[in-house]
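Researcher: Let's do a round of design. I'm pasting the structure tokens now; please hold your answer until I've finished.
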């Protein structure tokens, strides 16, 4: 069974930074595009960032562009989300997900595997 495990969440003041990690096991990590999503209380899960299998292409939600950076280390089976200039509205549970490689942007329903999530709380 494929396993994705997120880490790095926590409580941070507005303007601060966090780095999330997601490590995969029981899958050939370099064969998958990876994405980060988040869900705040009472809201739907929303796309945050994605990276293709090789790391050559990235996508960002407008709300995080210029503040968040997604990257991956296939040798470590890990995808990262560097989050800078955090805002209270970034507070959510953050999930990583894996999808088969695609030349186009993928929606949440097209991701095959999901992690359990890590809580990020940004205080004002």
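Researcher: That's everything. Go ahead.
Model: Designed sequence:
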């Amino acid at each position: 069974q494929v396993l994705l495990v997120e880490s790095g969440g926590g409580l941070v003041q507005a303007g601060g930074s966090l780095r999330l990690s997601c490590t995969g096991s029981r899958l050939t990590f370099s064969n998958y595009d990876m994405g980060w999503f988040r869900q705040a209380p009472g809201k739907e899960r929303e796309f945050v960032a994605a990276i293709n299998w090789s790391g050559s292409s990235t996508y960002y939600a407008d709300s995080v562009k210029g503040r968040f950076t997604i990257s991956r280390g296939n040798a470590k089976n890990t995808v990262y989300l560097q989050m800078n200039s955090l805002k209270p509205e970034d507070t959510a549970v953050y999930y990583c997900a894996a999808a088969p490689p695609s030349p186009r942007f993928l929606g949440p329903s097209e991701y095959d595997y999901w992690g359990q999530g890590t809580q990020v709380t940004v205080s004002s």
